[in-house]
Give the backbone structure.
Amino acid sequence: QVQLVESGGGLVQPGGSLRLSCAASGFTASTYAMSWYRQAPGKERELVARISRTAGITDYADSVKDRFTISRDNAKNTVALQMNSLKPEDSAMYYCNARLFHLNYWGQGTQVTVSS
């Protein structure tokens, strides 16, 4: 059974940090490109960061560049998103995604709320 399970979300004050994790199972995650997306209430889901299969290439939304870092551990089938200098506008449900050609898997999401 294919699963992506996110964790690490929560409530944090502006300027704080959180580290999200995504654990993959039921498929060979190391062969998939992995990404983090987010969706705030009333807004479309947007790409936050993505990382290639070998972690050689990363890409970030302009709004999170220099604040967020995506990484992966293929031996553990995990992908992480380190989020620093968080802003209220970063508040959203964050989703892990795995993609390989026509195969596209999503996790259930983890909520991030940035508020004082």
In short: The chain has a mean pLDDT of 96. The longest strand covers residues 92-100.
